[in-house]
Every structure is written in C-alpha cells, then in structure tokens.
Amino acid sequence: MALITSTYSKDIYYILVGVLFIPTAITWISFARLSMARIEREMHRDGLSRPSPWDAMGARVLWYATAIAFNSPRLHRADEPFIDVATVRRYAKPFDRMLGLVFLISGYSFLVVGLVGGLLIGL
Fold this sequence. Notes:
The chain is mainly α. It has one domain (about 5-120). It contains four helices and no strands. The protein has helices at about 5-45, 60-70, 85-90, 95-120. Helix 1 (about 5-45) runs antiparallel to helix 4 (about 95-120) and helix 2 packs across helix 4.
C-alpha cells in the first residue's frame, strides 16, 4: 500500500534517487581507484599482503572507506574480520579520509532515500 500516490511525488522521488546516485557512483569509483588502489600498492611495495583477500562485487571499497573515514571505535571496530583496519589506517592520507567520508555520506543518503521513498510510494 502506497502512502504517497501523486505522480508529482513519484517524479520528485525518481529525480532525487537519480541525483543521489551520481555522486555515489563517482565517489565509489574515485575512492576505489585513487585511495584503495594506492593504499594496496604502497602495502605491496612494503612487502605486506592485501588486507582483504576477498571482495564481493566491490564491497571491499565499503570496508576501506568505513575503516578510514570513521576512526572512532564506536563507528568502526578495530578488529574488523575482513580487513586489517590498523594497517589500512596507517597508509591512509587525509585526502583518503575526506573522499571516504563523502562516499559514505552520499551512499547512505542514496540508500535511505531509495528505501524510504520506495516504501512511501509503493515500489
């Protein structure tokens, strides 16, 4: 059952989801290519293995971004089972933290608007 049924509201929803998708996609790719790839390259140069041997459809980007952007133990555990958080943070630069934060904010905004709006208009 849809709570919002007007065509105008649905149009606004689709535009908002589309507008939020663009920065999410751009920052996802940017973080993966600029920050995550550089961190893994530097770690490999120093003789360390990749912190996460497993990557399901690019999800490793989320773990890296969360570990770097949320330095607080309340927001991200230091004993993450998928990546070595301490090592990743050691190789991260302030630019990586900023890009990761922008990526997470845009991604979570896209997710919330997509899910809540979809429920409200009955998708």
